């Protein structure tokens, strides 16, 4: 009769199941260890429970070490003077105690795998901004959610690390490999099959979509995951008296056309520029939003690491640079103004609404047919549980909480907008559309669900929702008002699928611009739908067509929200 159970043949120090000699199921007299994959063998006649284990000596050994340390201390205190041998004895005892403590601490990590053993692996490559702290934090939280309590991490190279995890309940193993060398490397790794998840601090570009088309459309819902928000902070030395710059001034600085601080009203001195490296998504964002095809000044110092860049700026009174908001550290951040928009500093609210001039999205990208483990990690990252991990890393999560202190109306909004917002709170979110389409973008689709859950937690019957749409200023004003109303109604139609009916849906066209209408990036940020909440008891002011624009311009009489949403939304 074939034996039904066996014990692991691996070394005790390499496998916990081998050390404990725990019997494991076999089929036809053969099997593999569930912990390390080594072959199983039939145990000797001595029951496995009676077999000596190295772990049984751990507690007595620790007790002996502690007793020795106490004895050495007592002898030291009794002696009138220390002899040369006594410090050495104390040092030896301390070293043993330290080694014992280290051994106990290492017990929380899984034992090493034997050479050649196969283990499921998730590979992440790409953005240093994402990979330095955010991705590891999300990975650890994901592993904990999946039941992996024994986690060990080791660096495997510059900006690279490996996490090995074990689930005590069934001995399952999982490995996660992280390499953070810049956003462009993530898309290249996805295209070459060396990554399961691409980390990015900017959206995928057309050339990268083409290179990865075998993986499906990476820009599609289900492949593009916005995992957090960040603001590219412009930083200077704390002693620099400047408080704000326009994007035009920032462009002049980094293009090398302004080379002395006196030109901006600061004390004279040559400007020292610091920038991220060419592979960085932070650099791609800055180049697109600030330089606008202008080359970077030849004398700029380039950095692969954001912390290194921030430290260099904080140490130099004449320096200026840019980093992701969590990496500003001791440097001073400047407020930025984009065209008609007000000067804003990067903050949780201004980044969450993407009103800040250099707000950006951080991404995970996965293939259409990604392995289930990678898909589960990406889904976790955008869940409410995953978003709670974001804030402690210094980035901005996507929970659309109300922020009453940050919702002051802009100066150029219509009187009706002021009446509506006077007793309301603005949620820390703006909803936007896919470029050139009448569909909400991937972030907005998830944000609609988040808004719904927020209302449910607070009691949906206790709050009223207001959707206020805006456009850019290209073209006829009344046409833009109608377009902004269409966008607001499209959001209302999406919310209606969750059973949420907004109390107010209105459009205000090009009013209250947050960015310049002279650039495509600025116009895209101005095309938005703000979300406000009113307490149920508050009176909702009646909304009327904007002055000079007939009702038929905004929406046909009796048109439903769904019908309005189905209308084509101009790229304006």
TrEMBL record:
**Which keywords does the record carry?**
Membrane, Signal, Transmembrane, Transmembrane helix
Read off the PROSITE patterns from this record. OMPA_2
Membrane-spanning segments: 57-76, 88-107
* Organism the protein comes from: Sphaerotilus uruguayifluvii
State what protein this is by name. Answer: Phosphate transport system substrate-binding protein
> Known CDD domains for this protein?
OmpA_C-like, PBP2_phosphate_like_1
Q: Residues in domain OmpA-like?
A: 420-537
- Please spell out the taxonomic lineage of the organism that makes this protein: Bacteria, Pseudomonadati, Pseudomonadota, Betaproteobacteria, Burkholderiales
């Amino acid at each position: 009769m074939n034996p039904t159970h066996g014990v692991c043949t691996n070394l005790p120090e390499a496998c916990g199941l081998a050390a404990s000699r725990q019997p494991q199921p076999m089929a036809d007299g053969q099997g593999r260890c569930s912990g390390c994959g080594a072959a199983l063998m039939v145990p000797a006649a001595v029951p496995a429970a009676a077999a000596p284990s190295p772990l049984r000596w751990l507690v007595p050994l620790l007790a002996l070490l502690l007793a020795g340390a106490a004895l050495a201390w007592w002898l030291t205190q009794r002696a009138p003077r220390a002899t040369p041998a006594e410090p050495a004895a104390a040092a030896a005892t301390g070293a043993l105690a330290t080694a014992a403590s280290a051994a106990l601490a290492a017990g929380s990590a899984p034992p090493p795998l034997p050479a050649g053993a196969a283990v499921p692996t998730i590979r992440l490559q790409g953005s240093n901004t994402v990979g330095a702290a955010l991705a590891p934090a999300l990975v650890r939280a994901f592993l904990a959610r999946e039941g992996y309590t024994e986690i060990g991490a080791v660096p495997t190279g510059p900006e690279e690390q490996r996490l090995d995890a074990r689930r005590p309940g069934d001995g399952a193993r999982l490995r996660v490999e992280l390499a953070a060398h810049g956003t462009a490397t993530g898309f290249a790794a996805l295209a070459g099959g060396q990554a399961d998840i691409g980390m990015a601090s900017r959206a995928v570009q057309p050339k990268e979509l083409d290179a990865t088309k075998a993986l499906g459309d990476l820009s599609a819902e289900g492949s593009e995951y916005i995992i957090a928000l960040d603001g590219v902070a412009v930083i200077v030395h704390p002693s620099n008296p400047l408080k704000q710059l326009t994007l035009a001034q920032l462009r002049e600085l980094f293009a090398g056309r302004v080379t002395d601080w006196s030109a901006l009203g600061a004390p004279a001195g040559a400007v020292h520029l610091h920038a991220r490296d060419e592979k960085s998504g932070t650099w791609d964002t800055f180049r697109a939003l600030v330089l606008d095809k202008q080359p970077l000044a030849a004398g700029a110092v380039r950095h692969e690491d954001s912390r290194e860049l921030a430290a260099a700026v904080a140490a130099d009174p004449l320096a200026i640079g840019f980093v992701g908001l969590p990496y500003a550290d001791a440097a001073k951040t400047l407020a930025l103004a984009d065209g008609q928009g007000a000067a804003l500093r990067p903050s949780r609210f201004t980044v969450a609404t993407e009103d800040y001039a250099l707000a950006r999205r951080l991404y995970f990208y996965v293939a259409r047919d990604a392995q289930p483990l990678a898909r589960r990690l990406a889904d976790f990252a955008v869940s409410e549980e995953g978003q709670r991990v974001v804030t402690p890393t210094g980035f901005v999560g996507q929970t659309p909480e109300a922020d009453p202190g940050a919702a002051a109306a802009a100066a150029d909004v219509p009187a009706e907008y002021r009446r509506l917002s006077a007793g309301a709170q603005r949620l820390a979110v703006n909803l936007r559309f896919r470029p050139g389409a009448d569909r909400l973008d991937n972030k907005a689709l998830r944000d609609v669900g988040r808004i719904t859950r927020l209302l449910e937690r607070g009691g949906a019957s206790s709050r009223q929702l207001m959707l206020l749409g805006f456009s850019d200023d290209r073209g006829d004003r009344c046409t833009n008002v109608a377009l902004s109303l269409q966008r607001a109604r499209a959001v209302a139609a999406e919310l209606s699928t969750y059973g949420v009916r907004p109390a107010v849906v209105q459009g205000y066209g090009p009013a209250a611009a947050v960015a310049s209408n002279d650039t495509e990036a600025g116009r895209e940020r101005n095309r938005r739908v703000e979300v406000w909440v009113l307490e149920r008891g508050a009176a909702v002011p009646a909304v009327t067509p904007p002055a000079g624009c007939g009702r038929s311009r905004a929406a046909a009489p009796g048109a439903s929200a769904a019908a309005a949403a189905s209308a084509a939304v101009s790229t304006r």
